[in-house]
Amino acid sequence: MGSNVEQAVGNSSDSFSGPDKDFGKQYYATQLGSYDEMYADEEKTRPYWADFFSSIERLGVEELERRRHEIQRLLRENGVTYNVYGNEQSQARAWRLDPIPLLISHEEWPLIESGLQQRAILLDLILQDLYGEQHLLKKGLLPVDLIFGHQGFLLPCVGTIPSLSSCKHRQLTVYSANLARGPNGRMWVVDDLAQAPSGFGYVLENRTVMTRAMPDIFRETQVRRLSGFFKAFRQALNHLAPNNKDNPRVVILTPGPLNETYFEHAYLSSHFGYTLVQGDDLTVRDGKVWLKSLDGLQPVDVILRRVDDSFCDPLELLIYSRLGVAGLLEAVRRNNVAVANPLGSSILENPGLLAFLPRLAKYFLNEDLILPSVATWWCGQAIERDFVLSNLSRMVVKPINSRNKQAIFAANLSTTELDLLKAQIKAKPYQYVAQELISFSTVPAFVDQHIEPRNAVLRNFVVSDGMGYCVMPGGLTRVAKAKDEKTVSNQAGGVSKDTWILTVKPEKPVTVWTQLERNGVVDAVNEPLTSRAADNLFWLGRNIERIDLAARLMRTVLAKLHETQEFKDDIDAAGLTILLQSLTQVTGTYPGFATGRADLFKSPEAELLSMVKNSQKPGTLPSNIRSFYQAAFSIRDLWSLEIWRYIDNIHRRWFLKVVNGEVTINQLPKHIEELMTNIVAFTGLTTESMRHESGWLMLDSGRRLERSLSLIALLRALLKPDLSDILHHQILEALLVCTDSLGIYQRRYRSMIQLPRVLELLLQDPSHPRSLVYQLQQLSEHIAALPRDRIGTQLSMEERLILKIHTEAKLLVVEQWVEYGKSGLPFELDQLLVNIDSSLKQISEVIARAYFSHSLVPQLIKDTAVEDEY
Amino acid sequence: MKYRITHNTVYDYSQPVGLCQNEAKLSPRDFWRQRCLSSQLNITPNAMDYQERLDYFGNRVAYFAVQQAHTRLVVSAVNEVLVLPAADQQNVGSKVSWEQVQNILTGANLSSSTGNGYYDLLEAKQFMIDSPMIAVSAQLADYASLSFSPRRPLKEVVTDLMQRIHHDFTYDPAFTTVATPLSEVLAHRRGVCQDFAHLAIGCLRAYGIPARYISGYIETTPEPGVPRLVGADASHAWFAVYLPDAGWLDFDPTNNSLPYDQHITVAWGRDYSDVTPLKGIAFGGGQHTLSVSVDVLRLE
């Protein structure tokens, strides 16, 4: 381990010193005894770092700080997030990126590249052997208990991974390794990620942001491009398709929006144009995998999974998993679908394998490992176990089955804890490995306006390329959060860096899109909308209208409250009472003002604040805003960056300013205005920039349906009988304001506000975008456009329902029931509205049943032994 | 001895199931002392997708999917099996002590064995370590210790362990479910055949002895004068232990017996999770009820 004594490496013979540049190299303090990326030895900076730092120092500290801000702003705008587990308040944490990249010289890179290629080939061979012939076990090259004792060795998968000779391509499609530099300057492999490596989406985003925020530095430094890797990646997935299918359908299987790297899943899905799916978006029929889309079942050929393999198939693997697809492994077994990486590949993440890799490299390749692993002892062998036990304090101990790869630093344990650990190792030695504790290199990081050394880990990415492997010339570098911290993790709040592989000749950028498919023709592929996405869009539409109505009504209430307090007029107070009651009724936030308690109407502030701040109570603004945001986030891949910004604004700013901020009643109108502006921007953008196909139809159907329900609720809540003329007039005016119809009314009727005319306008005007008939008209068009298998000429249930209420609303003659000068809704009209309301809710249910088929809940059925049946 | 075993499973649902995928391990495997003469798996409604294979341990597996809406699923397995008497265990001259077995399997000199013996040992090692439902613990080792007296032949150790389990534990179907952990079975000294098999296996593995789980059926002979009740039987479970000089020997702790010719083996694995007779994932269905009946009929 490096000592904690820090040393300022000043007075070196280089030429960067000077008063304006005092944040840079010469104040860069490194740690004694450990290796730092910048230094060839204690005195001398590596030449490529020197060049880089002279550019950085020309910028000056203020400019660098400005660029750091710019980077964070761009990341924020692009919605780059990282989910932190166990943190419900702010699920998504902004991704952080250091303006100083990690540099790797063009002399060193080929060694890393070939080392990773060799390792990927080796791991691929091990994978094929363990799930195939098992020569490694039979010849004693790998111990049986090392493999069988690891939860990643999935017995049902044996026989499902074809051998190299039979399929002519590598089975391990994506591979990733965490590298760190040891004290002697050599790169070591810390661990292998072989089942669903994450991070290369973040690499792409890091690079995009770096080239925008640091264009000058990027230009001056000759950096290898990443696009070739992404092209190879697309090709690798396409080539996996069973039976050499052209234009195969590739989907990305995500555990869902709560997963820590969900952003990346959505990002890659948009980048490659692959549909993002969750387990319940897929189904297995006839031994094949299908995507449940709005247009029916679509065949799936390749699954890029981000779900751990044991969770992928509840039938044959982990039975309680809700993230997988029942029957998936059977479909793989019949070669009807390819999964990358293959189910079962998490065995390669068994840390005990590290101890055997040198031997296996000799066996398979007759080569030495180009990149050594950190020295590792598997305790399942007596000699190694005894060695570990007697040198425990110098070791990092890892249980081979820990899900979160927890590492135990024996040096930090108390005597009791150490004894306990020893006892655990002795009891099940085959479940433990120990690794040498070494001090990894530090890299310069820009922290608090100066540059200081941090421990770093570099994650590299490799993708199969026929019989070989293509290594990304770059990677994800992550540095520890605090100075002396040895573990680097995003969960703990580390910072990322772009990784620049230097080159001597500039590279031409390759676009991912230039490549032709096998037959040389690129088809226009319409990615189907999953029924889960349709469901989310529908509810998103409903929620945005709920938010909109609540915001408008709240705004009207606040204006009335202000008036009442200023003029102390009894009529105003009576009007306020009606408005407050309707607010509770329309939003469903009972008991609220519905209790009729006089004191509440006198000082309604507390209840009003709770309606805008309390996110736990259903029906409140923040609760609806959160539902809206969650629905939007679950289909993150479908939004353009621009739309996403408004979605993010609607949610983030309300929670920041109102829910978690200090806000008074008087400041509320300002925030409500801002919210409404964002809503208008969101709905405008979706209408203007989304293609008006199934996805948009769902979104807009949700909006139209909810807007109809809102209007009915508002009319029924506000139109009370037996009001005085003045009060009646006030309420009608409030109604027109809430529905954004006052101006239209005044232009159209140029007269007193009268109930029959108000109702005519709000219920029946086919050209008024807030009227009931307008909503029903839109809704019937949308419903007619939804895909369906029609049996004969019969109308579907939802078509019948909408036709009926649309006609009823059109046929209504308002003046037949409503008299001039009288307030309140006549009984017949009220009944009509109640019927329309219940038909609309029925339509919502029918649509859900017909189109959101994932809503069928899976259950485990198991033949428990008879004797257990009690 | 020849048997016909009828094993019926019926699921009734309160709402339609649109799709279900299932895996059945209901067809008895062949091995040296047993032959499955005929095997039928009848599924109602008809399974549109049906495929058979052998699993990792050589057990017979049927994958099937019912892809039309249904509110009742009936899976009926009818198998005719010829069971040859096990070698009379009294005559199995296994004298090897448990320490010797432990040494052979944990020692580094596994490779000094040659040929088939070597592969048998390798295979046996898979049954020596923790499996999904059996994790070795100090409590298990502690319970087992009484049987593991120094230099005692392993066969005697296991026989003693089986007797102790039979004596110390109450057969109580009301106490456990499939998911009851072994620690609770041990603490309350109650359980069913599956628990007793798991318990014995855990005890043996705690001492580095390979043991595997067997699912199957047992012929129940009614009391004299009482007619045999069709369908009253149940699926059964016991365990086997590996003796390097004699192979795998079966022990039935529930009945304190050495299976001879009334135990019909269906499948074996590391524990129950490897040999679950029937499991599935159904989509929809609401509430479900399950009824199972097993009938073991001796044919000759």
Can you put this structure into words, describing what you see?
The complex is a heterodimer of chains A (870) and B (300). In chain A, helix 16 packs across helix 23 and helix 22 runs antiparallel to helix 26. In chain A, strands 5, 6, 7, 19, 20, 21, 22 and 23 form an eight-stranded mixed beta sheet that branches. Chain A has a four-stranded parallel beta sheet with strand order 9-8-13-14, with helices on one face. A four-stranded antiparallel beta sheet of chain A has the order 15-18-16-17. The longest helix of chain A has 37 residues, at 531-567. Chain A is built from 29 helices and 24 strands. Helix content of chain A is 44%, strand content 14%. Among the domains of chain A are: 376-437, Dna Ligase, domain 1; 536-690, no CATH class; 716-787 and 796-851, no CATH class. Helices cover 23% and strands 37% of the residues of chain B. Chain B is built from seven helices and 13 strands. Chain B has helices at 98-106, 115-125, 138-145, 154-168, 182-188, 193-206, 272-275, and strands at 2-24, 34-44, 49-54, 60-66, 70-83, 170-171, 190-191, 211-218, 235-243, 247-251, 263-269, 278-284, 288-298. In chain B, strands 1, 2, 3, 4, 5, 12 and 13 form a seven-stranded antiparallel beta sheet that branches. In chain B, strand 3 (49-54) and strand 4 (60-66) form a beta hairpin. The radius of gyration of chain B is 20 Å and the shape is globular. At the A-B interface, helix 5, strand 10 and strand 24 of A face strand 1, strand 3, helix 2, strand 12 and strand 13 of B. Strand 24 of chain A pairs antiparallel with strand 12 (278-284) of chain B.
Structural topology:
The complex is a heterodimer of chains A (870) and B (300).
Chain A: E1 6-8, E2 29-31, H1 47-59, H2 61-77, E3 81-83, E4 92-94, E5 97-104, H3 109-130, H4 135-138, H5 144-148, H6 164-167, E6 174-181, E7 187-193, H7 200-213, H8 215-220, H9 227-240, E8 250-253, H10 262-272, E9 275-277, E10 282-285, E11 288-293, E12 296-299, E13 302-305, H11 328-333, E14 338-340, H12 357-365, E15 376-378, H13 382-390, E16 395-399, E17 408-409, H14 415-427, E18 432-436, E19 442-447, E20 450-465, E21 468-471, E22 476-479, E23 495-501, H15 531-567, H16 570-587, H17 598-602, H18 605-613, H19 621-634, H20 641-659, H21 668-689, H22 694-718, H23 725-738, H24 742-749, H25 755-764, H26 772-785, H27 797-811, H28 814-817, H29 827-851, E24 858-862
Parallel strand pairs in A: 5-23, 8-9, 8-13, 13-14
Antiparallel strand pairs in A: 1-2, 3-4, 6-7, 6-20, 10-11, 11-12, 15-18, 16-17, 16-18, 19-20, 20-21, 20-22, 22-23
Helix pairs in contact in A: 2-7, 3-12, 15-16, 15-19, 15-21, 15-22, 16-22, 16-23, 19-20, 20-21, 22-26, 22-29, 26-27, 27-29
Chain B: E1 2-24, E2 34-44, E3 49-54, E4 60-66, E5 70-83, H1 98-106, H2 115-125, H3 138-145, H4 154-168, E6 170-171, H5 182-188, E7 190-191, H6 193-206, E8 211-218, E9 235-243, E10 247-251, E11 263-269, H7 272-275, E12 278-284, E13 288-298
Parallel strand pairs in B: 6-7
Antiparallel strand pairs in B: 1-4, 1-5, 1-12, 1-13, 2-5, 3-4, 8-9, 8-11, 9-10
Helix pairs in contact in B: 3-6, 4-6
